[in-house]
Amino acid sequence: MQQNGRFNVKYDKRCYDIYEFLNNHPGGANYVQPYEEKDIAKPMSLYEHSKAAFYLLEEYKTGGRRARDGQEDLEKYVNWNEPMFGQVTKLGTRYYEWVTSPVDRDLRLFGNPVLEYLTITPWYLVPAIWVPVCLYFAVVGTQKYEHITKDPSPLTSALLIFTSGVVLWTLIEYTLHRFVFHIEPSGRSKLMIYFHFTIHGLHHKVPFDSKRLVFPPFPAAIITYILYKSVALVLPDSMILLVLAGGIAGYVTYDMIHFYLHHGAPTENSYFYHLKRYHNQHHFAHHDNGFGISSTMWDKVFGTALKLRKLNIGIKW
User: Where along this sequence does the record place binding of heme (predicted)?
Assistant: First the structure.
């Protein structure tokens, strides 16, 4: 029973204990709870579950995973007791199918403990590091703007420039997610497989691993430096630090929203309720659309928006 740390359902005459999955179910625990100790074949078919959903279901099969009819168990090609970085290129042409077939596990990327530590990021580390940096750039940027422009009342202008940096980040977020994070690597290119897996693929493989939901500080610092150099080429000196401060604020907001969309329980019809449904669709059904995380604005602008079906009842995560 659910109270004892078990929640059994049946599918194809086999038993699955999905207790650990209840709070992660994209459709909410309340859609699943009526089916305890019952067969879920009909609702799985009725609600048009994706291929990824059926693959994920095998994680919870009593006695271990099994190969499905017409769906190979790709986990046999890797050893989950070993670091994954050195194994992914061996998948070759199977890599992309494997990385978009989610499992409910923790993932070790590197054998080296220092490298591994640099890839694991608790959510609170992001604001702890970047909020002070953002505030520093905002204060110094305002002072620099006032000094260069001789504006006696710089706060309004500084706030507008800062806000433009936040908006710029939303476009960067969309562009990175669509054209960099989701570039589909060729199975023949080991370098592209390494790049794709470490930058974003591992998140799609283990979407419930809370230590891999926010961006590690080191690569984030590299992106910040590139952003700084880029805006310095096109903006006057008076605006650079303020735009950068706004961009960092946008980034921190994005990472916190991303973590919340995976582990939070937004109330029905709220902004984050819509975003969580939207992001779940991106993860488990439509990898090639729905790239916005903190906002769906650029998906609508560039024609990659997802349409969410109307629900009979609200979702409760």
Answer: 25, 49
- For the stretch 224-280, pLDDT in tens is 899 899 989 999 999 999 999 999 999 999 999 999 999 999 999 899 999 999 999
Q: What is the pLDDT of residues 183-227, one digit of tens each?
A: 989 877 999 999 999 999 999 999 999 999 999 998 889 988 998
Task: Tell the residue number behind the tokens 């401060």, with chain if given.
Answer: 245
**pTM of the predicted model, to two decimals?**
0.92
Question: Which residue ranges make up the annotated binding site for Zn(2+)?
Answer: 177, 182, 200, 203-204, 258, 262, 279, 282-283
Helix axes 237-263, 155-175, angle to 10 degrees: 50
Domain 1-71 falls under CATH 3.40.50.720: no
Domain ranges of the chain: 1-71, 115-302
Determine contact, residues 211/110, Cβ cutoff 8 Å. no
> What is the widest separation between alpha-carbon atoms in the chain?
76
Binding site for heme, by residue number, is 25, 49
Share of the chain above pLDDT 90, in %: 82
